[in-house]
Write a structure and sequence with these properties.
The complex is a heteropentamer of chains A (293), B (660), C (148), D (130) and E (270). With 293 residues, chain A is of the alpha/beta class. Chain A is built from eleven helices and eight strands. In chain A, strands 1, 2, 3, 4, 5 and 8 form a six-stranded mixed sheet that branches. In chain A, strands 6-7 form a two-stranded antiparallel ribbon. The chains are: A alpha/beta (293), B alpha/beta (660), C alpha/beta (148), D mainly alpha (130), E alpha/beta (270). Chains D and E meet through helix 1, helix 6, helix 7 and helix 9 of D and helix 11 of E.
């Protein structure tokens, strides 16, 4: 597949259909290829595609759309949802993107440059098909790890006592070092100016001083991407402290699915998100939080 | 740093009895930026207001807090006072220490503590207040009425009589609407045409009214006071200026197979036609789908016989663009399709909708007023009316609402039949008889008591056409028996629904429709004739099922609202509107999708972000449309969108102060 | 009567009320002299849809023990649909807070019309009582913001 | 064991019907081919459930007269599903009685003829027995 | 040749095997094959209406699963089987609770989520083959025969689930007759009940109801009736005493196509 992608990219650059190619570039470590724009055919030998190519390239297309010419981008099935969502939010110029859907057999979890199994997101993956593409490069031989229940983690936590949940989150969030990696990698976190960097709200802070700030940051971040988060799992992947950030996003997704009907952000580019829509007759009252389970 | 003055009111003893006012005054002085604080028995009095004015001048105050009653009571009073002395009215805030403090808390310490806290929150907020200015927008002194039925005609006449220009856009060739199809009207049984026709003529001849018949609204731009509307005048194929209305054309037209819309398809009309004899305007139109000339190129008989030479086969649609200050939607209703109600045998010629029955009983109708079965021309010995066909039906084929007019028109129909033919057996199957209008119940009881109409409680289950008669099966719920009855004609009180064209019109106007497709009012109690979109008003059945008196009353109310709007030389807009920070806006459209008023649009604008220039897709608030709810401000993830007067920072400052 | 330290806890409650229904309902409670605890402090917003989750969290940060939100009844919103947005937003926010181990009883939403002064007072009394039972909010607090 | 007061709710659950939605239009009774054989008519059956009189429902002739032709369900403007209420009452009855109250297996041979389709036998047994 | 997975049902495998044979030979003549499910069990003949009747649906679910695994639609012939299959399938697709309960019972065999498309034989003719095509393949047009189509209850109601045709004004059966060259007679009682299972205990009552159907058809000019339901066939035939012959639709189809019931197939069951 890697070879096919190189050939495809080469042709697109050669005949001028594309100004650049967005893909994964080899680094000194096999387990850590990095997102990169390729503009010269000669550089394409550095283009790799393997199970370490975990980075979701959709977010980079925001910037690519502001440059001249078409950008070829390689997207795994799950990445296409982010891409679509960004198109819906007018962040990506669809006309200036040439989406090449690539097969995915799951991404490896890497710890200290060592392959230690599968990424959590790949174990619960539900996004097997590309929802947007101009061309597909498929490898039928790739097989995915056996699927687990995507909401299993959320459900288990829901089953705990309130105090146990609090303690769980204290345990998780107290390790947060506010490096902002989750925010920087998240395709949905594309605000020009984040509220946490704004002097307007008295929320700007470089480091967490109290436990409240960790909670505030992660609650508000989860909330700001609610209904827009495609559950791409990048935040959890890049967290240097291994905080289970996906649980926050998935909790909201699970609530949305249960309360307002199944919704998958990025499924298309038209449907209104669940927080920008409502159903006057059937929406649950917030008291449902108090009465259920 | 603002220089803030705090004024605490005793409100006689209303506040002073429960709150230690002096303590509030003293504590206020300790708040940041407070350079003056004082108390007064009645702050809202002339003397109290003077006290504020003097203090503002003397202490050079740039912000004022009045701790007194509810702002819903006196905010306007104090803001006017502030404006009088040259302070921007929005630099004044109130702390509600009466309704929400002194009147409910008996413990003086608690109440005082709370009053101090509420006052400090108001001080914290006023520090972040900025002068706000109500904008102004022009008002075009002309109204557009969409729909030429009794609702549209009534509004147009009321507005035109007050001296303003009004245009009526009507999609069919003539005005009059549903009412023109009716024979008699309840509960007085007066002739529909006799009261409607003069109104139609008035509308057509009024100096201030322009009729655009056979026309549709093509596009709408702008907002209250300043709408720009393009109207498509469909090609009539007849020159309205030349036509004398002699009727020679449709007398001679050989294409006579088109089902007549006006007669509900019960009879045919010509390809060139006027909808009915008293049509206004009395100018025919050519139905190009039916016309032999248009279909084959041959014929042209109408052209030959038209002495003034008004026939124009080459005529094209014409687009007219006009500015309006107000728009009134009066698009009306239609009976629902009964295709899915097979149990009532709607395909049978002797099973009629109520509107078809109106035409049968009308002297100008397809049977010339003779009450006969359409299948065999026999006079029926028995007529059965079935109520609630498709109304109050929550299944996908029906309408969940009550169509409201059916009970009364059925009583009318039953009575008219009995009046003319006492020998005909008339039965009405009903679920409930609803007759809450003026003289309505008396009317319905007359049908039963004086005219001997049988009312049977129970919905009909099935109707079967046996050829020379019909059979129905029903249950009399009060008698607890099942009925299998023979009858000769069945009239279905068919549910009514808004016209299909209502939806596109609503979306052009950014007005909303409900789940049933009816136009939504701005407030069910207090703004029943206004749509949520400023400058758009509602009249008649497009807003919900209505009878004629109610329609005319609503039309009058809408006209009053329109006149109130048009009489202004300009509009002041609410200054507490949303505004986007262009440096933070991402152009993601989330705010646009939650705005109930369509007040947010997007534009590509060049911005200068600390020297970096670039074109960006940015939210732009139309302040004339924005009502200031704040839905957009919360949906905006970057906080770019904010609400003036209730900004994020202001509310956070209040929170901080109250939680101290 | 001597009150022990534990019992002197008076909760701090922040109430967000929409201008058209709930704030008017609160005024009516006042006009009708219907008492509710003085710890309830009301902030007026144009519509329940103006309430940013950040406001709720900020109140907790600054020491509120409970946050209650009031709006027009569904279908009665002055801005047509604002309370429907608020309903979804707050449902998800409350659920997320619950998920993070913040006691459920500390957040509440109630629809109160301008005519429901009695309901307003009863709602506030009931909410304050619940907060009183829950005690001081210790799970969401910012120690720096504590007043001495 | 269910108490008496639980019976109406039990019946509601089994039937999956929405008795509260009924507006008493009588269209079910108007459509019913077995109306004359029923002592409690379809529309009344809904009222009985609203009132909670499950015993009367179970002891009615209605449960044996309903043919499950679904005409009432098809035509009901409120989607109440009267036949499902009747069926639920019948199910509760045969479950309580445990045995065939209406036809016993011994009677069957004499009721058959050479043309009797299997379908008749199976459906009758399903209706009359547990 | 197009192959469908086929569920014949009890009646058509025993007492009315001939009618099943007609269906198969006609299918072959029309270019499709009915492949019977291995080891099917009786559908129960009556759809279990109670929301707590889970076990009663298992036989159907197993047949539906077999069809799903075959990757083909499931074709039924008998109206009752079709009714029960279609509704159970609908439950499995739409009713979360019922799906969970049934799948609990199934354990290793499951889960099943209503993936199978359930088609009545007439729907195959209508939707897949097309009545126009059928008309072309008719060898012996039934010209001059005035036939009323008797739908009964099971095919049509509840229409929201059955989605067979307009429940009050159906046309599918009539169009079938038209394709066979017969003169169709529309009569008002065609969607009324024949009495169904009560004919076992209360023969007079079902006779009364069946007579209403037959009279209505006769009054509107029918000289014979067709039906898709073996129980309707039985009830109306019993009553009308041959005055108005009732024919199963596959028999009529075989006649028009000029095919005979296969001996061995008939013998095999007989």
């Amino acid at each position: 597949m890697q070879e096919q992608l190189r050939i495809l990219a080469g042709k697109m650059l050669a005949d001028g259909r594309a100004a650049r190619v967005l893909g994964w570039k080899r680094t000194d470590f096999e387990t850590a290829p990095e997102p990169s724009f390729f503009t010269a055919q000669d550089d394409l030998s550095e283009l790799v595609y393997n199970k370490y190519c975990a980075a979701n390239l959709s977010g980079f297309m925001i910037g690519a759309g502001k440059r001249d010419g078409v950008t070829v981008v390689f997207l795994k099935p799950c990445d296409t949802y982010s891409f679509n969502q960004l198109v819906k939010e007018h962040q990506i110029d669809r006309a200036k993107a040439y989406v090449v859907g690539v097969s995915c057999g799951g991404n490896a979890k890497v710890e200290e440059m060592e392959d230690v199994g599968w990424l959590e997101r790949c174990l619960v993956c539900t996004k097997h098909d590309h929802v947007v593409y101009d061309e597909l490069v498929l490898d039928e031989s790739l097989s995915r790890p056996e699927a687990q229940d995507r909401f299993g983690g959320v459900t288990r936590l829901e089953g705990l006592q309130s105090l146990e949940r609090y303690e769980f989150w204290q345990g998780e969030l107290s390790t947060c070092i506010r490096c902002n990696a989750c925010r920087n990698v998240c395709p949905a976190c594309n605000c020009k100016k984040c509220v946490f960097d704004s002097a307007k709200y008295d929320t700007a802070a470089k480091a967490n001083v109290t436990t409240f700030e960790e909670q505030l940051f992660h609650i508000i971040r989860a909330y700001h991407v609610a209904g827009r988060c495609t559950d791409c799992g990048e935040c959890a992947r890049v967290c240097p402290q291994d905080i289970k950030l996906q649980l926050l996003n998935r909790k909201i997704i699970k609530d949305i699915n249960e309360l307002y009907g199944e919704f998958q952000a990025g499924q298309d580019t038209e449907t209104l998100g669940p927080l920008t829509a409502f159903n006057a007759d059937t929406d649950a009252e917030p008291s449902i939080v108090h009465t259920r389970g | 740093m603002k220089r803030v003055g705090v004024f605490v009111c005793h409100c006689g003893t209303n506040i002073a009895a429960a709150v230690d006012v002096g303590e509030v005054v003293d504590k206020a002085r300790l708040e940041r930026g407070v350079v003056f604080s004082a108390e007064y028995p009645y702050m809202c009095s002339e003397a109290g207001q003077t006290m504020i004015a003097n203090a503002v001048k003397e202490h050079n105050l740039t912000g004022v807090v009045v701790s007194a009653c509810s702002p819903r009571m006196h905010e306007v009073t104090f803001r006017k006072a502030a404006a009088k002395i040259g302070l921007n009215p929005y630099m004044l805030e109130m702390a509600n220490i009466r309704e929400q403090c002194s009147w409910i808390h008996k413990d003086k310490d608690d109440a005082t503590k709370k009053a101090v806290s509420l006052t400090s929150a108001a001080v914290a907020k006023v520090h972040l207040n900025t002068p706000l200015f109500a904008g102004e927008s022009p008002v075009t002194k002309r109204a557009l009425v969409i729909g030429g039925g009794i609702a549209g005609i009534s509004v147009a006449l009321d507005v035109a009589d007050a001296g303003y220009d009004v245009d009526i856009v009507e999609s069919t060739p003539g005005i009059g609407g549903r009412m023109a199809q009716l024979d008699k009207t309840f509960p007085t049984l007066d002739c529909s045409a006799c009261i409607l026709t003069p109104k139609m003529v008035d509308a057509a001849t009024h100096d201030n009214i322009t009729l655009h018949t056979y026309s549709e609204v093509e596009s709408v731009e702008g907002f209250v006071g300043d709408f720009t509307v393009t109207i498509r005048k469909k090609a009539r194929s007849v020159d309205m200026k030349k036509c004398t209305g002699c009727g020679a054309c449709y007398d001679k037209c050989p294409a006579k197979k088109a089902p007549s819309e006006f007669e509900e398809g019960l009879s045919n009309r010509k390809a060139i036609y006027i909808p009915f004899a008293q049509a206004v305007p009395n100018v025919p139109v050519i139905d190009r789908e039916q016309c032999i000339k248009f279909k084959t190129g041959k014929c042209g008989l109408c052209e030959t016989v038209c002495a003034p030479g008004a026939i124009d086969f080459e005529q094209q649609d014409e687009l007219v663009t006009q500015k309006y200050g107000a728009v009134i939607v009066a698009t009306g209703f239609r009976p629902i399709e009964l295709g899915k109600f097979g149990e009532y045998a709607p395909e049978s010629k002797d099973v009629l909708t109520s509107l078809e029955f109106e035409r049968i009983t009308n002297a100008a109708g397809p049977t010339k007023g003779a009450l006969v079965r359409l299948s065999d021309g026999r006079k029926p010995k028995s007529i059965t009316f079935i109520q609630c066909v498709g109304s109050r039906d929550t299944t996908p084929r029906g309408k969940a609402y009550c169509s409201k007019i059916c009970c009364m028109y059925t009583a009318k129909h039953a009575m008219l039949v009995k009046d003319k033919y006492p020998d005909i057996d008339v039965n009405v199957y009903y679920i409930d008889v609803r007759s809450p209008g003026k003289n309505f119940d008396e009317f319905y009881r007359r049908a039963a008591e004086e005219y001997g109409v049988n009312y049977i409680k129970g919905q009909v289950g099935k109707v079967v056409d046996m050829g020379d008669h019909l059979v129905l099966q029903a249950a009399d719920m009060l008698d607890n028996r099942q009925i299998t009855a023979r009858t000769d004609m069945i009239v279905l009180a068919t549910a009514i629904e808004p016209l299909k064209s209502t939806k596109p019109i609503a979306s052009m106007l950014t007005a909303s429709i409900d789940t049933n497709g009816f136009m939504t009012e701005a407030h069910p109690k207090l703004k029943p004739v206004e749509s949520p979109t400023a400058g758009v008003f509602l009249a008649g059945a497009c807003h919900g099922p209505k009878d004629i008196p109610e329609t005319v009353a609503q039309a009058g109310a809408a006209a009053a609202k329109v006149l109130g709007l048009l009489s202004k030389s300009k509009l002041t807009t609410n200054p507490c509107v949303a505004a986007a920070d262009e440096l933070a806006c991402n152009g993601c459209s989330a705010c646009e999708s939650v705005c109930p008023y369509g007040a947010i649009g997007y534009e590509d604008r060049q911005i200068n972000d600390h020297g970096v220039r670039g074109n960006q897709r940015l939210a732009a608030v139309n302040t004339a449309l924005c009502q200031g709810c704040g839905a957009c401000a919360v949906t905006c993830p970057s906080g770019a969108m904010d609400l003036l007067g209730f900004s994020n920072r202001q509310i956070l400052a209040e929170v901080d102060a109250l939680c101290r | 009567m001597q009150i022990t330290g534990e019992q002197t806890f008076t909760p701090l409650i922040t109430a967000f009320c929409c201008n058209w229904c709930s704030y008017a309902g609160a005024d009516l409670a006042g006009t009708s002299r219907l008492a509710y605890p003085a710890e309830v402090r009301i902030i007026k917003v144009p519509c329940s849809c103006r309430i940013n989750p950040l406001f709720v969290l900020r109140a907790f940060q600054k020491g509120a023990d409970g946050v209650i939100i009031c709006g027009c009844h569904p279908g009665d919103c002055h801005y047509i649909m604002g309370n429907y947005y608020a309903r979804r937003r707050m449902t998800l926010l409350f659920s997320l807070l619950d998920f993070m181990g913040i006691e459920r009883g500390r957040t509440h939403l109630e629809w109160v019309s301008a005519a429901e002064g009695a309901k307003f007072a009863a709602t506030m009394s009931g909410f304050a009582e619940n907060i009183h039972k829950l005690g001081k909010n210790r799970r969401l607090e910012d120690l720096r913001c504590k007043s001495s | 064991m269910l108490g008496r007061t639980d019976l109406p709710n039990r019946l509601r659950v089994i039937s999956g019907a929405k008795d509260k939605d009924c507006m008493k239009c009588g269209k079910c009774s108007a459509s019913c081919p077995s109306y004359e054989k029923m002592d409690i008519r379809p529309h009344q059956f809904v009222s009985y459930l609203q009132r909670g009189d499950v015993d009367a429902m179970m002891n009615s002739t209605t449960v044996w007269a309903c043919l499950c032709c679904y005409a009432c369900i098809e035509r009901c403007p409120r989607d109440v599903k009267p036949a499902q209420i009747i069926e639920a009452a019948r199910l509760m009855l045969i479950r309580r009685q445990g045995d065939t109250p209406y036809v016993s297996a011994d009677d069957i041979p004499e009721l058959l003829d050479p043309d009797t389709p299997q379908q008749l036998l199976v459906s009758a047994l399903r209706k009359y027995t547990k | 040749m197009v192959v469908y997975t086929y569920y014949p049902g009890c009646t058509l495998k025993t007492q009315a095997a001939r009618l099943d044979s007609y269906a198969r030979v006609s299918a072959r003549a029309l270019g499709f094959e009915l492949e019977e499910i291995d080891q099917w069990q009786c559908c129960g003949a009556v759809y279990p209406l109670g929301t707590d009747e889970v076990a009663a649906k298992l036989a159907c679910v197993r047949a539906l699963m077999a069809a799903r695994d075959s990757g083909r639609p499931l074709v039924t012939l008998c109206s009752a089987c079709h009714h029960v299959m279609k509704r159970v399938n609908h439950d499995m697709r739409m009713d979360k609770d019922m799906r969970a309960k049934v799948n609990n019972y199934l354990e290793d065999e499951g889960p099943y989520g209503g993936e199978t498309e359930v088609l009545h034989y007439l729907e195959v003719l209508h939707k897949h083959l097309g009545f126009a095509k059928l008309k072309e393949m008719v060898v012996n047009p039934l010209s001059g025969r005035k036939i009323g189509a008797y739908y009964g209850c099971m095919l049509l109601r509840p229409s929201a689930v059955m989605e067979f045709d307009d429940p009050e004004n159906p046309t599918l059966f009539e169009n079938f007759l038209k394709a066979l060259g017969a003169e169709q007679v529309v009569f008002p009682q065609r969607n009324e009940c024949c009495g169904g299972y009560i004919s076992l205990r209360e023969r007079e009552r079902s006779a009364e109801m069946a007579a209403k159907v037959a009279d209505s058809a006769a009054r509107h000019g029918a000289e014979e009736l067709i039906t898709a339901c073996p129980l309707c066939l039985y009830n109306v035939n019993k009553t009308s005493g041959g005055k108005l012959p009732v024919v199963y639709f596959t028999e009529l189809l075989a006649q028009a196509l000029g095919v005979e019931a296969e001996e061995e197939e008939a013998a095999h069951v007989g």
